[in-house]
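User: Some background: our group keeps a shared notebook of sequences we're curious about, and every so often someone picks one and asks for a predicted structure to add to the entry. Today it's my turn. The entry only has the sequence so far, pasted here. Could you supply the structure so I can complete it?
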Amino acid sequence: MDKIVVEKEVVVGDGGGGTGSNAIWALAFIIIVGMIVGALYYSGA
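Assistant: Of course. Here's the predicted structure to add to the notebook entry:
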């Protein structure tokens, strides 16, 4: 089984608040989860 390493670099420009920031975090979370699920699916797990 391949080892999946996810590195996340956080750059906070507006203190992490605001609707735009929340939307970006939600999108990033969906992309990361999708990549993990896709990797597991394609590896036959």
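Suggested note for the entry: The radius of gyration is 14 Å. The chain has a mean pLDDT of 78.
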